Amino acid sequence: MSGNTSSARLPGAAPLLVIASVAVMGVLVILPLWTVFHDAFSKGLEAYLAALKEPDALAAIRLTLIVAAISVPLNAVFGVAAAWAVAKFEFKGKSLLLTVIDLPFSISPVISGLVWVLLFGAQGWFGEWLADHDLKIVFALPGLVLATVLVTLPFVARELIPLMQEQGSDQEAAALTLGASGFTTFLRITLPNIRWALLYGVLLCNARAMGEFGAVSVVSGHIRGQTTTLPLHVEVLYNDYDFVGAFAAASLLASLGLVTLVLKSVLEWRHAGELSQSRKH
């Protein structure tokens, strides 16, 4: 009990730092969040719901969900495979693979989107071939998915790699020695050991996928009702001085972020030990 008491006490000027941190976070996070919801409902619930029922708004919501529904599972599969390879095996190019996984963290999302335009745009490397075969990637759903997948690439892998390195490969080796197949070993041993960290990474990946703006903006073409996701829809409405509509759409994104935050906190509270292992490195 005394240990808990001593750990709760903060030495010296630490309380002032805590108060200052809370004050800064209140100004930088809570106040803008409150403003979003306040302005979204400034003309009443009816105007708020009407803004969300607009055909362009519904199309943006639908497109955002579709892009996330495709991108997140792809990144989950890639994250598990990459983490498995890095944590369980030694091979040439391992450092290069880790660097590639971290690359989206270090480059601007705008550049991530520009890459796909340079490859698949009308004047890009494959633009002529795509036009000849009546295929469209940029300014269409495939481009949005590619841009989102690239930006959210590290979230699942980076949650799993430290955890799988910490767990080692003794259990998998024992199962293989006893005759289990590789797939059975993965389903019965590896996956249960990483399930909460995997879910945590998927949550973060999903939140980023739904809120991505820079990369998606480059490849979208800003075609209303067709290639505008929710973040782009907010920008379009704001530029058109439709503030209630813009903040109503923004409140949806903020709500998704808050739901993600709650789920993330629940995971951290229920499975703190496993999740802390994934952040040791």
TrEMBL record:
GO cellular component, one term: plasma membrane
Alphabetical list of PROSITE patterns matching this protein: ABC_TM1
Subcellular location: Cell inner membrane
Pfam families documented for this protein: BPD_transp_1
Membrane spanning residue stretches: 12-37, 57-84, 96-117, 137-157, 243-263
SUPFAM superfamilies found in the cross-reference section: MetI-like
UniProt topology in membrane: Multi-pass membrane protein
CDD domains with a match to the protein in the record: TM_PBP2
Main location: membrane
Keyword entries, A-Z: Cell inner membrane, Cell membrane, Membrane, Sulfate transport, Transmembrane, Transmembrane helix, Transport
PANTHER family reported in the protein's UniProt record: SULFATE TRANSPORT SYSTEM PERMEASE PROTEIN, SULFATE TRANSPORT SYSTEM PERMEASE PROTEIN CYSW
Subunit structure: The complex is composed of two ATP-binding proteins (CysA), two transmembrane proteins (CysT and CysW) and a solute-binding protein (CysP).
Role noted for this protein: Part of the ABC transporter complex CysAWTP (TC 3.A.1.6.1) involved in sulfate/thiosulfate import. Probably responsible for the translocation of the substrate across the membrane.
Protein name, as recorded: Sulfate transport system permease protein CysW
Organism, as annotated: Phenylobacterium soli
